[in-house]
Write a structure and sequence with these properties.
Elements: H1 2-11, E1 16-21, H2 29-37, H3 49-53, E2 64-71, E3 92-93, H4 102-120, E4 126-129, H5 137-143, E5 148-149, E6 155-156, E7 164-171, H6 190-194, E8 200-201, E9 206-207, H7 213-216, H8 225-233, E10 236-238, H9 242-245, H10 265-268, H11 274-277, H12 280-287, H13 298-311, H14 317-326, H15 330-340, H16 345-358, H17 362-371
Parallel strand pairs: 3-10
Antiparallel strand pairs: 1-2, 2-7, 4-7, 5-6, 8-9
Helix pairs in contact: 8-13, 13-15, 14-15, 14-16, 15-17, 16-17
Length: about 375
């Protein structure tokens, strides 16, 4: 049965597959608890730790878990001839958001795998999860022998590095488990050193998501001053690849395998101004197939405004003024004030003063005062 499943997985273009038991993941219990107690969470993960540790709370009859991985591109985009155009401001989407939304691609593969299993054994029970399920995809993948956990908390595979998407299928079938791989990171700490926010907790292999730019570029609320400063100069408008790019196990990992994940250059390396020009409907039509669109346009607009503050092109002042005066969203008005404050007072001081008179939200008023250096 196991050999047939593996053979079929190759037929449907699953890059790696491994099997583990449905026993509790007690090995991550302490880390999960520490992550939650210290407030390191992203807000996107399952809050109930029991559901994350005990697979049978999701499928009571589960005896085995099949873990799969699909590789995504690790290569750099070709340099655009237009990227040197004077006055053009571009920022990148991280590699994990390239191409078609991986949630749909992996779910399709897992559904095919589940159908195949049920064709062979009609009484088989299955439950599939991709990223948004309660289980830790990485913990499942480690125990199923797909790879090991790097110090940046990413799963690293020998074949594809950490440029992989993960998913799993729970089943009531008793399948022979695979052996975990040895952790090969040894004394390397390049990812820890390279992180611009020092979000990687040394010796723990966990991330403080409240600092990590891969998560914070996705958020929609107000940002700390430190995060505003970092996002403004970040190479990415969505996500972050920095800790992966410095990893020795990712060196030379092109992973040009799946047509679904190939990037459209204009989408993954956009002009930041495009997010001010598109309506919500147009944004969904243009970016809706990418996983980078799942949070909508608002966080991308906010990040773009911060980037304009770092670039300080006088031609963008009218746009920033428009958002400060007329945008109905206070968190957008706040970053518009921050960005206007990056210009010389002669260029934007009067705009900020007028905005201060108009503003009613205390949080935005504080940002305007800080931009004017009037905060007490």
């Amino acid at each position: 049965m196991k050999s047939e499943i593996i053979k079929y997985s190759q037929k449907i273009n699953i890059d790696k597959i491994g099997i583990t038991t449905a026993d509790p993941f007690l090995e991550i219990q302490c880390l999960l608890r520490e992550h939650k107690e210290k407030g390191y969470g992203s807000g996107f993960e399952e809050e109930n730790l029991e559901l994350r540790i005990y697979p049978r709370l999701s499928l009571p009859t589960a005896r085995s878990i099949i873990a799969i991985a699909l590789a995504y591109p690790g290569y750099e985009l070709e340099r655009r001839k237009t990227s040197a155009t004077e006055g053009e401001i571009r920022r990148k989407f991280c590699r994990a958001s390239w191409g078609r939304d991986y949630h749909f691609v992996l779910q399709e593969r897992l559904s095919k795998l589940a159908d195949f299993i049920k064709q062979m054994i009609p009484e088989a029970e299955t439950l599939t999860m991709v990223d948004t399920g309660p289980l830790s995809d990485r913990a499942v993948a480690v125990r199923a022998g797909l790879g090991w956990i790097g110090k940046n908390s990413n799963l690293i595979t020998p074949e594809f590095g950490s440029f992989v998407y993960l998913g799993e299928l729970l089943t009531n079938l008793p399948l022979p488990p695979d052996k975990p791989l040895e952790n090969r990171c040894t004394d390397c700490s390049r990812c820890i050193t390279a992180c611009p926010m020092h979000a990687i907790i040394p010796g723990k292999a966990i991330i403080n998501c409240q600092k990590c730019l891969a998560y914070q570029t996705l958020t929609k609320g107000f940002l700390s001053d430190e995060l505003k400063e970092k996002i403004a100069v970040h190479p990415y408008i969505y996500g972050c690849d920095i800790c992966q790019l410095v990893c020795p196990y990712n060196k030379g990992k092109v992973n040009d395998i799946h047509e679904e994940f190939k990037p459209v250059d204009e989408l993954v390396n956009p002009k930041v101004e495009v997010f001010f020009q598109l309506s919500n409907k147009e944004f969904k039509e243009k970016y809706g197939q990418m996983s980078g669109s799942w949070r909508g346009k608002k966080n991308l607009e906010r990040n773009a405004i911060l980037i304009l503050g770092a670039v300080k092109d006088p031609k963008t002042i009218p746009l920033l003024k428009k958002h400060l005066f007329f945008d109905p969203r206070p968190e957008i008005r706040a970053v518009a004030a921050w960005s206007l404050g990056k210009f010389n007072y002669d260029d934007t001081g009067e705009i900020l003063k007028e905005g201060l008179q108009k503003e009613k939200d205390d949080r935005v008023i504080l940002e305007i005062k800080k931009a004017l250096n009037l905060n007490e």
